[in-house]
Amino acid sequence: MRNVTVLAGGVGGARFTRGLLAHLATAAPDAAVTVIVNTGDDMWLDGLRICPDLDTVMYTLGGGINEEQGWGRPEETRRASSEITAYGRGWSWFTLGDLDLATHIVRTDLLRSGSTLSEATEFLCRRWQPGVRLLPMSDQPVETYVCLDENIDEHAAGDYIHFEEWWVRYRARVAVTRFEQRGLANAVAAPGVLDAIQTADLIVLPPSNPVVSIGTILAVPGVRDALRSTRALVAGVSPIIGGAAVRGMADACLHTIGVDTSALAVGLHYGARSQGGLLDAWLVDETDAAALPALTAAGIRSAAAPLWMTDLPATTAMAAAVLAL
Ligand code: GDP
Ligand code: CA
Questions:
Q1: What own/partner pairs with CB < 8 Å and gap ≥ 24 does 222-229 have?
Q2: What residue's CA is closest to ligand 1, atom 1?
Q3: Which residues' Cβ are closer than 6 Å to ligand 1?
Q4: What is the mean pLDDT of residues 103-128?
Q5: Which ligand is nearest the CA of 43, by number?
Q6: pTM value?
Q7: Less CB within 10 Å around the terminal CB: N or C of the chain?
Q8: Where in the chain is CATH 3.40.50.10680?
Q9: What is the pairing mode between strands 48-50 and 133-136?
């Protein structure tokens, strides 16, 4: 096992990768890990480029994450953002902590001086040393918007709002009819992304949101084809346990695209690679073991193991279970 590539969103992808690194440190010390991160949640706020999933992975693996929240920095203050609010600017529902702001300022400065997002990410990682090669899925901006199914505040049914507004401001409790990834038509996979898929020995879809995290990466031109044709084994870990999203509101996303909130339905949604889908193997929680025969029948090698990422030992054991598949 030399090259492992992970397709990640924010919290679920970051925590799993931390366990994967801990497992590989003893099981395969020479292995190199590349993490391809969703950038569909990115946005401009107060003149700054915010990349929520890239930052969550970078801070988590670099030891700078707020563990309770799963995003942002620990011991944050909000002095700058309350000043911005005093001017009547910014979004009161989106937190920009003072320490975190420094990351956005440095990234935006790099982007404005002509660096690509890949280059800016590499620069930020020189400080955080995440222990992986961290790649944005694309250097071109791709932003996920949702189409509202009802009127809410200043928005009317049929309006599109940024995914982060739906997720953070409305906690995904407002019905939406579809997701739209704006910018996708002009996007290409960032340098190294397709290569990291084609030359990997193992590709892992961690327990990230199947719709707006992994689904968005898969929509980048070339990514799905690269996954279908790679010689690597493609193994996924269910983000759904016992019919519920473990944390967050992934069920609202699955509902919107017509997929049941179950480990089986998500596995079948990705599909077996032998049947034109993406997965060779799918790991479900032990409480979802009843799904194993249906997964096997669909051509997906599967197993059940504890999938709660409660602490590093539990997450390390999860990564070991994936490699055992
Ligand atoms: P986000 O970008 O921060 O929303 O994070 P991701 O897309 O990486 O992953 C979010 C998803 O990870 C959640 O919706 C959950 O379904 C899943 N998840 C979070 N914690 C756990 C856990 O401990 N175990 C499992 N199996 N899934 C988890
Ligand atoms: Ca995210």
A1: 222/188, 222/189, 222/194, 223/137, 223/189, 223/193, 223/194, 223/197, 224/278, 226/189, 226/194, 226/197, 226/198, 227/197, 227/203, 227/278, 228/273, 228/276, 228/278, 229/198
A2: 10
A3: 8-13, 53, 56, 207-209, 213, 238-241, 245-248, 250, 307-309
A4: 98
A5: 2
A6: 0.97
A7: N
A8: 3-139+186-324
A9: unpaired
Closest atom of ligand 1 to 213 CA is 7
Q: Which fold has domain 3-139+186-324?
A: Rossmann fold (3.40.50)
245 Cα to the center of ligand 1, angstroms: 7
Task: Take atom 27 of ligand 1 and give the residue whose Cα is closest.
Answer: 239
Question: Which residue has 């539990």 as its token pair?
Answer: 314
Residue type, 273: R
Name the residue of 205, 209, 282 whose CB sits within 8 Å of the most ligand 1 atoms, as the mutation to test its pocket.
Answer: 209
Q: How many whole angstroms from 37 Cα to the centroid of ligand 2?
A: 9
Q: Are 229 and 198 in contact (CB under 8 A)?
A: yes
pLDDT band at residue 91, thresholds of 50, 70 and 90?
Answer: confident
Under the banding of pLDDT at 50, 70 and 90, the label for residue 92 is confident
- Alpha-carbon distances, residue 50 vs 37, 104, 143, 184 (angstroms): 14, 6, 11, 18
